[in-house]
Amino acid sequence: MIHIIEQDLFNNEAQAYWQCCNCFNRMYNGVAAGFRKLYPEAVQADNKTIEGDKSKFGKYSVAHAKNGKYIYNLYGQYHYGTDTRKLNYEALYTAMESALTDCISKKIRSIAIPFQLGCGLAGGNWNIVYIMIQEIFKNFDGDVYICKLKS
């Protein structure tokens, strides 16, 4: 079941966190900066991939953090920047599908996602991304927490 909640993503007790990433091993802004600070394992997983490698577009890397959580870096945007929309909906969808398959294989039953995944600096449209999330998780027998900061 999908729950949209007012909570800092990093305070959620989910077993896994998902974030949208670019393919250039940059995690300096937006939600990624929080992952960089709190989960250096996510940066290490990202840095094990080749910077700018087009083959990781639409895929993911995953880290198992010291606190037991899994951090999924979803490569839904090829490049970074805010001059134009960088989010590629098909790539994000494919990465989410694959990450969910991996979560299920690890018996993960709770996943936390930032509100407006891929819609901040990457420039995506939340209405589109949310429909994608609903489709991806329609048969998931667990909980998905879309974490929205309190205004």
Mind explaining what this structure looks like?
There is one protein chain. The radius of gyration is 14 Å and the shape is globular. The chain is built from 4 helices and 6 strands. It has a single domain, classed as 3-Layer(aba) Sandwich (Leucine Aminopeptidase, subunit E, domain 1). Strand 3 and strand 4 form a beta hairpin. With 151 residues, the chain is an alpha/beta fold. Strands 1-6-5-2-4-3 form a 6-stranded mixed sheet, with helices on both faces.
CATH 2nd-level architecture = 3-Layer(aba) Sandwich
Give the low-pLDDT segments: none
In order across it, which strands form the biggest sheet? 1-6-5-2-4-3
Q: How much β-strand is present in the residues? A: 15-25%
Instruction: Compute the average pLDDT.
Output: 94
Q: How would you spell out the order of helices and strands?
A: EEHHEEHEHE
Which CATH class? Answer: Alpha Beta
Number of E strands: 6
Task: Supply the CATH superfamily name.
Answer: Leucine Aminopeptidase, subunit E, domain 1
Largest pleated sheet: 6 strands, mixed
Percent helix: 25-40%
Q: What is the CA-CA span between the terminal residues?
A: 24 Å
What is the approximate shape? globular
By CATH, the topology is: Leucine Aminopeptidase, subunit E, domain 1
Radius of gyration: 14 Å
Query: Would you tell me the structural class of the helices and strands?
Result: alpha/beta
Number of domains: 1
